[in-house]
Amino acid sequence: MRVDELEELQRQVLAALRAPLVGPSRERTELPLSARVMPESFAATAERYLTPSAALTPPARLELYHRQYWFRLLDALTDDFPALRSLLGPRAFAALLEAYLDSAPPRVANLRQLGADLPAFLASGAVTTPHLVCAQELARLEVAWLTAFEAAEAPPPTAAQLSTSALALQPHVTLVALRSHADSVWHRANESRPRGRVRPPAATPARFVAVFRLALARQMERLHPAAHALLASLQEQGSLAVALEAAAPLLPARRGSALVESWFRKWTAERWLALREPA
Amino acid sequence: MSANRFNAHSALGVGVGLRAPHLDDLFAAPEKLPLDWFEIIAENFMVDGGRPLQTLEQVRSRYPVIPHGVSTYVGSAQGLDPAHLRRLKALVRRIEAPWVSDHLCWGAVDGHTSHDLLPLPYTSEVARLCAANIRQVQDVLEVPFVIENVSSYAEFRASTMTEWQFVTEVAEQADCGLLLDVNNVYVSSVNHGFDPRTYLAAIPAERVAQLHLAGHARFESFIIDTHDAPVADAVWQLYAETLARLGPTPTLLEWDAQLPTFAELLAEAGKAAKLLAEVTAAAAPGAARAG
User: Of A149, A147, A148, A121, nearest to A136 (Cα)?
Assistant: First the structure.
């Protein structure tokens, strides 16, 4: 078998593994094989490349890998998005994940990064999902939670560098602007891990949160709109002066500067800020 | 003896896979546990910071840690992923790993990964490709790179040799060590209808750097390598026979799903340690005369 023939075999077999789950193939690996319900191309690939065993036909053998492919990825995403699952319910959540994996097959070695593009997928309108806005925002919060787990920590600025150097947020800090009560839904889903669904509250005031890591523990915290504007500007442009300007209209008329000072004390103590890497 | 150049002449005994739900028990233990080492899934620690790397340092301060990869894919027709190798090398350096293992398999095409360990057609051409890829990995990592036989549920029409002939040919062409997974041999032997003892006897003993044990799930017409159960009796028997042939060999118990308590995991690892101790005692100088 030449290398180009091996490459074609590998391309065809992986394409078969990526074939959507259908009917009983959605059940667990140990259930009776159902290759008969798979598409004809699936059986053709199996027959072309695989031998039968004493007990299994080539399509049945390939189906073991097919289920393994899907269940491994679905299980990993289910572990990483418990709040989103609580919001949508198991059926809609599973349908969302299958559509996501169908549209964006994995390209990352670390399974914890498998769902990184799920918020963008939800925002793309490719699927119809209940509570769409809340679902998108929950997905962003849960990706931020994963990011806070394993993102790097860059050198923090010294007190003098705060005003003289270009700044950024630490890689483990994510800002999320919310139009829904996604943070409340997230807290309820994660605190109690309910078996049932968590429905979003009806009112949807704008709010801002930061997800970050402090002494290796992950945290989520609501932000004042001015604090969000300040941090978002720092993240985007790096200039303290520009960030203060962006936050100014959102600060209360009285004690605004004291508020900003208290935020910087906290952000410095909790290492939210980093020196901006040269472009 | 399987202390050899492929495992840095290691005298490690029995270890287990490091899994997050066991960390509290591991770190709460007042004394060193009856374990010689831990194996980590390399990809879970090829990250930039945070808890994974801090956990790794905590474990390393008390036990040797060996990285075990699941996505180098030395059987990929399209070759290796240089970015993946760079990240793997960074991990190897960070933890000063004496050796690294991964699987003799493929799993990715055109940048899309299956997150599975897929079997290969067993031919001389494919063996040459795998050996070339393994040599490249060894050149990059600068520590011994050891390849593991995978369990499988399918065989290819294109194969022209047995799996054990293929594994041997790859290892010899690449001049690499082997991580012999006894459970995988057993699982494949049932699924494909061969004698596992024929397989195990054919593996070049001098290349075996490490052994794996794990549990599996038996269904009516096939076995799945689930790593979610105690080691089966038949696999314990094969392990004992393998140790008798190889001599004392670093052994790792894998348990990845339906995790037991840490105490139960230690008890299962203890079974391997007992068998390993018996072989070690028998291999000690003077043991034959004393017996």
Answer: A121
Mean pLDDT by 10 residues, chain B (291 residues): 83 94 90 91 94 94 96 97 96 96 97 96 98 97 97 97 98 98 98 97 97 94 92 97 95 95 95 93 66 39
Whole-angstrom distance, CA of residue B71 vs CA of residue B111: 12
How many Cβ pairs within 8 Å bridge chains A and B? 140
Q: Predicted confidence band at A38 (pLDDT cuts at 50, 70, 90)?
A: confident
Q: How far is A221 from chain B (nearest CA, A)?
A: 19
Kindly list the residues from chain A whose CB atom is less than 8 angstroms away from the CB atom of residue B108: 14
**Dihedral over Cα of B42, B46, B49, B51: its sign:** negative
pLDDT of residue B3: 84
Flag whether residue A113 sits within 8 Å of chain B, measured between CB atoms.
no
Q: Are A122 and A132 in contact (CB under 8 A)?
A: yes
Tell me the pLDDT tens digit for each residue of A65-118: 999 999 999 999 999 999 999 999 998 999 999 999 999 899 988 899 999 999
Question: What domains sit in chain B, N to C, each tagged with a CATH number?
Answer: 5-283 (3.20.20.150)
Query: Are the beta carbons of B157 and A51 separated by less than 8 Å?
Result: yes
Distance of CA A256 to the CA centre of its chain: 35
Give Cα separations from A10 to A20, A80, B111, B119, B158 (angstroms). Answer: 18, 29, 12, 10, 13
Burial class (CB in 10 A: 0-12, 13-18, 19+), A124: exposed
Shortest distance, CA B29 to any CA of chain A (angstroms):
21
Residue of A12, A150, A174 for testing the chain B interface, max B β-carbons within 10 Å: A150
- Residue of B44, B48, B222 lying closest to A56 (CB–CB): B222
Q: Is A14 part of the contact surface with chain B (CB cutoff 8 Å)?
A: yes
What tokens were used for B43? 């990809």
Beta B177-181 vs B208-214: how paired, if at all? parallel
Spatial CB neighbours of A90, under 8 Å, sequence gap ≥ 6: none
Give the separation between CA A102 and CA A21, rounded to whole angstroms. 10
Do the strands B100-103 and B106-109 form a parallel or antiparallel pair, or are they unpaired? unpaired
- The domain ranges of chain A are 1-79, 81-275
From chain A residues 220-279, the ones with a CB under 8 A of any chain B CB are none
Q: Do B222 and A50 touch (CB under 8 A)?
A: no
CA A269 to chain centre: 28
The pLDDT-based confidence of A193 (bands split at 50, 70, 90) is: low
| This prediction's pTM | 0.91
- Do the chains contact at A111 and B78, CB–CB below 8 Å? no
Q: Are A160 and A184 in contact (CB under 8 A)?
A: no
Instruction: Report the gap between the CA of A50 and the closest CA in chain B (Å).
Output: 4
- Note whether B51 contacts A149, CB cutoff 8 Å: yes
